[in-house]
Every structure is written in structure tokens, then in C-alpha cells.
TrEMBL record, chain A:
The keyword Iron-sulfur applies. GO terms for molecular function: 2 iron, 2 sulfur cluster binding; metal ion binding; nitrite reductase [NAD(P)H] activity. It holds the Pfam family Rieske_2. Keywords: 2Fe-2S, Heme, Iron, Iron-sulfur, Metal-binding, Nitrate assimilation, Oxidoreductase. The lineage of its organism: Bacteria, Pseudomonadati, Bacteroidota, Cytophagia, Cytophagales. It comes from the Bacteria. NCBIfam families: nirD_assim_sml (TIGR02378). InterPro entries: NasD-like, Rieske-like_NirD, Rieske_2Fe-2S, Rieske_2Fe-2S_sf. This is Nitrite reductase (NADH) small subunit. GO terms for biological process: nitrate assimilation. PROSITE patterns: NIRD, RIESKE. Residues 13-115 form the Rieske domain.
TrEMBL record, chain B:
This is Nitrite reductase (NADH) large subunit. Belongs to the nitrite and sulfite reductase 4Fe-4S domain family. GO terms for molecular function: 2 iron, 2 sulfur cluster binding; 4 iron, 4 sulfur cluster binding; flavin adenine dinucleotide binding; heme binding; metal ion binding; NADP binding; nitrite reductase activity. It comes from Larkinella arboricola. Its cofactor is [4Fe-4S] cluster; [2Fe-2S] cluster; FAD; siroheme. Residues 323-393 form the NADH-rubredoxin oxidoreductase C-terminal domain. GO terms for biological process: nitrate assimilation. NCBIfam families: nitri_red_nirB (TIGR02374), PRK14989.1 (NF011565). InterPro entries: BFD-like_2Fe2S-bd_dom, BFD-like_2Fe2S-bd_dom_sf, FAD/NAD-bd_sf, FAD/NAD-binding_dom, FAD/NAD-linked_Rdtase_dimer_sf, NasD-like, NiRdtase/SiRdtase_haem-b_fer, Nit/Sulf_reduc_fer-like_dom_sf. Residues 636-761 form the Nitrite/sulphite reductase 4Fe-4S domain. The keyword Heme applies. The lineage of its organism: Bacteria, Pseudomonadati, Bacteroidota, Cytophagia, Cytophagales. [4Fe-4S] cluster binds at residues 645, 651, 685, 689.
Length: 118, 840
């Protein structure tokens, strides 16, 4: 179910899943190019985010199962293992400066969710 | 430094009070210096803490006793001359001349010459082996002499004398005697009865006390051999420390023509001014309000007054409270207000416990309204409270004896305590800090430790006596704030769990979004989401994965399994009471084999299957459910297991059928969501093999029925459960558990176990009993009804998932490749089973 759409600024958009595959205000994991990516349907804000699925703290593939929410205005996800929380915008760990995850652009079109990879 | 247009202040004396004056003046001219400071000290070292001088023998070095290092003086532009006492004051020319011949002019002169030891005119005081106890040099001399001494004595049974006697013990002398002229110890602070108690304490430590002893002469050739008393008796000693009081150092003032008191001391007015308005006297050399203040706190106050007045502030020195509290060789002694007042001007209440070595006395007004003073020996815990009650003329409780005895019977009164004091109550008398000032520093400026407060305010740095009170104050303020912070869920929901539960109930809210829209802000977080999830479940008991509730559950609840190292899950089927048929055991074995799971017996008498991929969970459960199992809720903040011993169906000691009752209890409360997990146990007899007393609620069989215990805990802070009801029948027992659990569910903070909840509950077990057993709140029937609703609406969550394709779909690792398991999951082998791969 992989589809490629070339974008002008060298981002390649990969079809990840259907909108209903990701629970509202929760996350789900997709495998794209052998890479585990967590997609978050931040329904409360009408926003979508995508990050690494791996939490860098203990290298666990778990962020898609984490709880999302906000800290101030910053959207974030909390790893279910030890509650490290990461900004969904920047990927910066919010309660331990030494950790950082990668974030990816998300596009939703016609009920489909696309992730932009370089 | 340009001192041309500055006025010159010369301080004579670098003791505690002299130093404090410098410190105050430096602090006051932070924003513009108006005075230059010159200090002359007689001793070779900079000012040190004389109050804790005895600590020099114990563990402190001279450096540690130093109030401020020599560099401090230089940094603050203070010219300091040590080992160079001033020998002459020329008031006409306004200049002082030091022993070394230094002549320094002054605009203002501050005499802080302190005091010397008073040595009574007894023949032989000049002999070798006779010492005073005043300076570090004195202590050095005593220490080196004590090495060849066997028997020592202290002349003077006052504060300092007892300290010195302790020093003799510490120095390893075989005999240590205290000689007191008065018929009691500490004659200025405590009465005969208090002295009696203190004496017994001191004697038990090896000190010998001689009261009403009038020393006539010190015998020996050049060296002391003994002490001869007026009654003819002789005490053989090798050394003697004289601690018979202080003598103000007023000789310099006298020589320069300043007014002095006939019995010693420089006369000053309320502003600490001597008969020469440019000359002040502070500390133990001064006579203010007709007395010498031989304590550090009033000395510091004097330093403040003079520094303030030099800076143009209005301040005067008021008569000072001479209350004291100290620890003497392990015995607390406190004396406050007027310790001796008695009929008819006051009424006296005393308490004496000879066995424990405790004596307490309070003097109250004849109308019983206010506290006039008192004495504490052996237990001075209430000292600071009493002192403040006395100073602030706080109206006493109806039974003033409660002040020293604690309230007996009934509930403890919540009044009193440091937080009950008025804002202007003086907490640290050395630094004149009020309760309001300290609360401000703690609450507003965030100085929430003793160390931080010391830095910010110098509280506790003088006599240190206020430290316990300051600690209480920190805790009190933190409790006030912390209560607030801890109780409110998070930045999104500004309510306590209990408030929110009521609001959700009244408004009939069923989803997180509804709750957040109505009562919160932002988007929620990993704190408030599971908390709301828990209370929604406690209220409505609807499937936790439906209506958008799945994503507000903690990860374990969301997948109805416990996430383990590596990202796989564990599966725990319910085995009520730990009873299981062979067939069911076989099914567990088969399932474990089929899905490659590691199996282990848990602490709660059931079987845990580890290593399940998220996608396998519905399949595994389908098989388990078909075999008659239900969810064990090992993942939930809810009832885990009810552990049981085998009971009287097999056990020859058992008195009741504990297994049957355990199964009944487990079936009743399974699935009930609560603020934290719940564990229970039922034992068939007093041998308690089910360890019921370590559970949130535990039941132990008796000959007549069942004993119910609540609030127990294993874990990191083990705590025994407390007895709630005894010899009750099953129905009553269940009713009480219903009420207890529901009361807990409705009032506890999130993630608070019953033990912690009970520990924090005001009134504790007494109150809980009143609510649950006596139903004093009249909510018993409601609690039972609410629990019954949860019992009646129980559904096995796993069965619902297994039967619901939509819910089942969520149990997958990759939503775009549902059939693929997480390829990063790895196992290792251990004892013929698998284990999770160690994480990095």
C-alpha cells in the first residue's frame, strides 16, 4: 500500500495509513521504508503529527502507544515506559534535555495519511 | 578606599555581638556607604560562636565555629586588628589607643567588650589546674591539662557550668563533680523539682552533684589538690573549672569616665547610648533596663538597634525575654517567661514522671486565660510553642494542662502548632524574624529548606533554638501550598480528584473531552487523562476502551495488558482466591506453549504469561475466555487478587473457609476501578498464612466470624493494616468493605494507595471507623449502593474486546501491516524459557 508522491521541495510523501487507523487523540505505528514511525491524530486540535516510534531513552518501539497531550501550548507525547515526554513539534524531550526524536511532516488527503520523508 | 567624607565607627571587641554589629551595619549600607569600620579584638582569632563552644570538644574545629572568615572583614572594607585590645579611650579627642600603640580616631565608638568569667574571691584560685570556661584558648588549656587529670570539678551549676561538666566527661575524666552554692542546679532557670529531675539524669551519666556547697578554699601547693568547703568537707580533685557567672568587661569604660553600674557593667539607655552620646555599649558589657543580658539573642538585638540608629532608623532596645532552652548532656531543659511565679499572682500546673525523667511546670494567670511562664526538664518539645503562647498572650485552651500533657481522649485538637501562631510571633529571636517574615521567605521566595532559609534570613544561625520551629513552619507552609499543588490534578484540570469526581457525577459526563471542555483547559496530558479515565470508570463502569476512552488510559489499560521490557505484554487471567482446576491449569499451559510465553507464578497466587506480542493478545484471550477465564485486571488500577490460605476445608488449624470467602470477595470487587491498585487476602485462622494484614483490605477468620483490617501495604514502605471491625459475619464484613472501598475511591488523590490515604486522613483510623462502621456521615447506604452498581455492571473487558472486531483491530503493532509483528522484539533464553532482551 505504498504510494509515492513527489513534492517540489524534495520531500517524498509516503502513504502511511487511513485516517481511521489512528485513534482520535492517540497514536498508531506504521512501517515505512523499514522505518517505524508513530503517527498521532491530535483530533482535539485538528492536527496530525509523526515522529520516530522509538523512544531514545531505552530504545523501545513504543511512542505510538504513548499518551498525547499538551504542556502549555506545546503538543507532546509521553512514552509509556518511563514517561519521557517529547514535543510533537520539535521532537525535543521535555523532561530530559539529553533526548531528542525525529519528527516528520504529515499530510492528510481524502481520508489518507501521508508522511513526508527526505 | 576613600574614607574622607565617611564617618568613622570604631568597635571595641570582636565577639559574637561585636561581629553581629559589623554584619548589620554592612548590610544596612549596601546601597551607599556612610561609615568606615575599624574593629579591635583582644583574642587572636576572629569572632566565633561562643554559644556552641562545647562543640569544640566534640566535633567542631575552631574554623567551623568561626562566624565569618577574616576575608569577610577585608571584603567589606572593615579594618580588623586582632590580638590588639584597646587600652585607652580619649573621649575628648575622640580616639582610641590600642595595646600595640595604634591610635584611631572615631566619630562613634561601640563598646562590645563582652564579659569575662567571674572568679569568686576564694583562696587558691591562682593554682595550677584551675581554669575558667570562656574562650577557645581556655578550652585548649583545659584539654591539654585534662590528659593528666583523673578527677575534675566544675564550680557553678548554671548553664555554662553544666556544659563544662559535660566537657570534663567528654575529655575522659574518671570523676566529674559539679559544685553549686545554691540548693539546686540552674537556680536562675528552674525550680527545686525540676532540678531534682535534672540531677538524677546527670547522675545517671556519671556526674556527681554537690548542692548548697560553699567553697572556702582550694588546697594544694602550687597545684590544686582539692576543694575545701565551709561545712568542713573536702573534695579531692586534680582540676577545677570555675563557672560561677560572668563579669562584664567595663574596665575600659570606667577608666574613660563613662557611667558604670556599681556591680559592674556599662550603663546605657534604651538606645544603648552610654553617658557619652557618641559611645554605645552592646552585649554582655552593657547594663540596659537595669540588667545584664547574658544571652546572645538580646545581644544581637542590641547590635541591630545601634546599627539602625547610626543609619537614622528609629529603633530602641526593649526589655528582653530571657527564656532559654538547651540540651544538657542529652537532657532538654527549657525555662520561659516567669518560671517561678506562683500563688496568688499565678496558678501552677506541674507534671512529673520520675521513671522517664520528665518534669514540666506551667504558670498561668489566676483566671486561667494566659500563660505566664514555665519550666521543662527532660522533654522540651513544646518549648517553642509554649514560649510563643506566653509571649503572644494567646488565650489558653479550656484545659491548660493539655499544653504540657497533650490532649488526652477524644480527637486531637487541630488548633495550636506553629501554623496557629499569629503572624507577628517571633520565631527566631536571635535575628528577630517573625512568623510572617519566614512564611514569606518560604512561600513566596521559595526558601524551603533550613539551609536556604539560613542563607536568606540567617534564621537558626544564632542559638539554633528556633530550628525545630522553623522546620515545622517550612512543613506547614509547604503543606498549605503542597496540598494545593498535590491535590490539583495538573495544568489542565484545576481540581482535586475528589472535586472532579463530584462534578463529573453531577454533570453526568462520560468522556474525557466532555470533562476537559466543561472544567479544564488545554489538551490534557499523561497525568490528568488516566486520572479522569479512572474516575469515569469508578462512576459509570462502562468499557474503558469505548467512546474515545482508549487513548486516555495508561498504556497498560489501553491494551488491557502490562507492557514489559522490549514492548511485549504479559497476560494474567483471573484465578479467584488462587483456586484453579487442573483443566484450567492445562489450558494456561497450552496457551503459553502455543504463543511462546514465559510463565511464572505471581505473588498474588496466579499465573503470569509474559512475552505476548500486542497482535497476539486478542487471540490468547479468546482461548482463555473460551476455557472460562476472565481478565485478571493485572494492568488496572483496580482489584488485583484476593490471596487466600486453604482454610478449614483442608487445614487442621483453620476455623473458617477462607478460600470460599476469598473467591466471593474477589468476584465481588473484580474490575472496580480505583485511585490505585487494590490487593486483598483472606486467612482461615490467626496464623495468617494469606498475609491479609499486608493488604489494602484483609480478612482473618476468628472462631466467631471475621476480623476486617484495612490500609495495609507491602511494597517499598510496608505497613500493617489496622483493625476496622472484629468478629463480624460475612454480610457485615462485605458491607464494611463496600463502604471502605467506595469512600476511598471517592476521596483519595490519584495514585494513592489506601495506606497512604489513611495515613494522611485527618483523624486517621478513628475517623475512618466512625465513617465506615458508625456511619457518622450518614453516607453508608449511598456508598453501598454505589458499590453495588459497580458490582452489577461488571463485564469482562477482554471478553468485550474479543467479541468486538472494532476494538480488536486496535491490537496491532503496524496499522499499515497488521499481520506483521514488531521485528525489533528480541528474546533471550533462560532456564528453558525465554526472557526479554536486556535493554541498553
Amino acid at each position: 500500500m505504498e504510494a509515492l508522491i513527489a513534492d517540489k521541495d524534495e520531500i517524498t510523501w509516503f502513504l502511511a495509513c487511513r485516517v481511521e487507523d489512528v485513534p482520535a487523540d492517540g497514536g498508531a505505528c506504521v512501517l515505512l521504508n523499514g522505518h517505524q514511525i508513530a503517527i498521532y491524530n491530535f483530533a482535539r486540535r485538528g492536527e496530525w503529527y509523526a515522529t520516530d516510534n522509538e523512544c531514545p531513552h531505552r530504545q523501545q518501539m513504543a511512542l505510538s502507544r504513548g499518551m498525547i497531550g499538551s504542556q502549555g501550548d506545546e503538543p507532546k507525547v509521553a512514552c509509556p515506559f518511563h514517561k519521557k515526554t517529547f514535543s510533537l513539534r520539535s521532537g525535543q524531550c521535555l523532561n530530559d534535555e539529553s533526548y531528542q526524536i525525529t519528527t516528520f511532516p504529515v499530510k492528510v488527503t481524502d481520508g489518507m495519511v501521508y508522511i513526508g520523508l527526505e | 578606599m576613600n574614607t574622607g567624607n565617611m564617618q568613622r565607627v570604631v568597635v571595641i571587641g570582636n565577639g559574637m555581638v561585636g561581629y553581629k554589629f559589623c554584619e548589620k551595619l554592612v548590610a544596612k549600607q549596601k546601597n551607599g556607604q556612610r561609615f568606615s569600620l575599624t574593629v579591635f579584638g583582644e583574642e587572636p582569632r576572629v569572632a566565633y560562636d561562643r554559644v556552641h563552644l562545647s562543640a569544640y570538644f566534640a566535633d567542631k574545629t575552631a574554623d567551623e565555629l568561626t562566624l565569618a572568615p577574616e576575608s569577610w572583614y577585608a571584603e567589606n572594607g572593615i579594618q580588623l586588628y586582632l590580638t590588639d585590645p584597646v587600652v585607652d579611650i580619649d573621649r575628648e579627642r575622640r580616639e582610641v589607643r590600642s595595646h600595640h600603640g595604634l591610635v584611631v580616631p572615631y566619630d562613634y565608638l561601640v563598646l562590645a567588650t563582652g564579659s569575662g568569667a567571674f572568679v569568686p574571691p576564694v583562696a587558691g584560685v591562682e593554682k595550677d589546674g584551675v581554669f575558667v570556661y570562656r574562650t577557645i584558648e581556655d578550652l585548649d588549656l583545659i584539654q591539654s591539662y585534662a590528659r593528666r587529670a583523673r578527677k575534675g570539678a566544675v564550680m557553678g551549676g548554671g548553664l555554662l557550668g553544666l556544659e563544662a561538666a559535660k566537657a570534663l566527661l567528654d575529655l575522659g575524666l574518671e570523676e566529674a563533680h559539679i559544685i553549686e552554692f545554691a540548693p539546686r542546679l540552674m537556680p536562675r532557670q528552674i525550680d527545686d523539682a525540676g532540678s531534682g529531675v535534672l540531677q538524677r539524669q546527670l547522675e545517671s551519666l556519671g556526674l556527681t552533684i554537690h548542692l548548697s556547697k560553699n567553697t572556702q578554699q582550694i588546697t594544694g601547693e602550687d597545684t590544686i589538690r582539692g576543694i575545701q568547703f565551709a561545712d568542713g568537707s573536702i573534695l579531692d580533685v586534680d582540676m577545677l573549672i570555675i563557672s560561677a557567672g560572668i563579669r562584664p568587661r567595663d574596665e575600659l569604660a570606667k577608666a574613660s569616665g563613662l557611667d558604670t553600674h556599681p556591680r559592674g557593667g556599662i550603663l546605657v539607655d534604651n538606645f544603648l547610648q552610654t553617658s557619652d552620646p557618641t559611645v554605645f555599649a552592646i552585649g554582655e558589657c552593657a547594663v540596659a533596663h537595669h540588667m545584664i543580658y547574658g544571652l546572645v539573642a538580646p545581644g544581637y538585638d542590641m547590635a541591630e538597634v545601634v546599627a539602625a540608629r547610626l543609619m537614622g532608623e528609629e529603633k530602641e532596645f526593649k526589655p528582653y525575654d530571657m527564656s532559654t532552652k538547651l540540651k544538657l548532656i542529652g537532657t532538654d531543659v527549657g525555662s520561659f517567661g516567669d518560671p517561678f511565679i506562683s500563688e496568688p499572682t499565678g496558678r501552677t500546673i506541674t507534671y512529673e514522671n520520675k521513671a522517664k525523667g520528665i518534669y514540666k511546670r506551667i504558670n498561668i494567670t489566676p483566671d486561667g486565660k494566659t500563660l505566664l511562664g514555665g519550666i521543662l526538664v527532660g522533654d522540651a518539645e513544646q518549648y517553642h510553642m509554649l514560649l510563643q503562647t506566653c509571649k503572644n498572650k494567646t488565650v489558653l485552651p479550656p484545659n491548660p494542662e493539655d499544653l504540657i500533657l497533650g490532649s488526652r481522649g477524644g480527637e486531637a485538637t487541630s488548633a495550636g502548632g506553629v501554623m496557629g501562631l499569629p503572624d507577628d510571633a517571633l520565631i527566631c529571636s536571635c535575628e528577630a524574624l517573625t512568623k510572617a517574615q519566614l512564611c514569606h521567605e518560604i512561600g513566596e521566595n521559595g526558601h524551603t529548606s533550613i539551609d536556604a532559609l539560613k542563607k536568606a534570613t540567617k534564621a537558626c544561625t544564632g542559638c539554633g533554638g528556633c530550628t525545630p520551629l522553623v522546620k515545622d513552619l517550612i512543613q506547614g507552609v509547604l503543606k498549605q501550598q503542597g496540598h494545593y499543588i498535590r491535590n490539583v490534578l495538573c495544568e489542565h484540570l484545576d481540581y482535586t480528584r475528589q472535586e472532579l469526581l463530584d462534578l463529573v457525577k453531577i454533570n453526568h459526563l462520560k468522556t474525557f473531552d466532555e470533562v476537559l471542555d466543561k472544567f479544564g483547559q488545554g489538551d490534557g496530558c499523561e497525568v490528568c487523562k488516566p486520572a479522569v479515565a479512572s474516575l469515569l470508570a469508578s462512576l459509570w463502569n462502562e468499557n474503558i476502551l469505548e467512546q474515545g476512552r482508549a487513548t486516555i488510559q495508561d498504556s497498560n489499560d489501553r491494551f488491557l495488558a502490562n507492557i514489559q521490557k522490549g514492548g511485549t505484554y504479559s497476560v494474567v487471567p483471573r484465578i479467584p482466591g488462587g483456586e484453579i482446576t487442573p483443566d484450567k491449569l492445562i489450558v494456561i499451559g497450552q496457551v503459553a506453549k502455543k504463543y511462546g510465553l514465559y510463565t511464572k507464578i505471581t505473588g498474588g497466587q496466579r499465573i503470569d504469561l509474559f512475552g505476548a506480542h500486542v497482535g497476539d493478545l486478542p487471540l490468547i484471550w479468546e482461548e482463555l475466555i473460551n476455557a472460562g477465564f476472565e481478565s485478571g485486571h493485572a494492568y488496572g488500577k483496580s482489584l488485583r487478587t484476593v490471596k487466600s490460605c486453604v482454610g478449614n476445608t483442608w487445614c487442621r488449624f483453620g476455623v473458617q473457609d477462607s478460600v470460599s470467602f476469598a473467591i466471593e470477595v474477589e468476584d465481588r470487587y473484580k474490575g472496580v476501578r480505583s485511585p490505585h491498585k487494590l490487593k486483598s487476602g483472606v486467612s482461615g485462622c490467626i496464623r495468617e498464612c494469606a498475609e491479609a494484614q499486608s493488604k489494602d483490605f484483609g480478612i482473618i477468620a476468628t472462631e466467631k466470624g471475621w476480623n476486617l483490617y484495612v490500609g495495609g501495604n507491602g511494597g517499598s514502605k510496608p505497613q500493617h493494616a489496622q483493625l476496622l471491625a472484629s468478629d463480624v459475619d460475612k454480610e457485615t464484613c462485605i458491607r464494611y468493605i463496600d463502604r471502605f472501598l467506595m469512600f476511598y475511591i471517592k476521596t483519595a488523590d490519584p495514585l494513592t494507595r489506601t495506606a497512604t490515604w489513611l495515613n494522611k486522613m485527618e483523624g486517621g483510623m478513628t475517623y475512618l471507623k466512625a465513617v465506615v462502621v458508625d456511619d457518622v456521615l450518614g453516607i453508608g447506604a449511598d456508598l453501598e449502593r454505589e458499590m453495588q452498581l459497580l458490582v452489577d455492571t461488571f463485564k469482562c473487558e477482554w471478553k468485550e474486546v474479543v467479541d468486538n472486531p472494532e476494538l480488536r483491530k486496535r491490537f496491532t503493532h503496524f496499522v499499515n501491516v497488521p499481520e506483521l509483528k514488531d521485528p525489533t522484539v528480541e528474546f533471550a533464553t533462560l532456564r528453558d524459557q525465554k526472557r526479554a532482551k536486556e535493554w541498553k
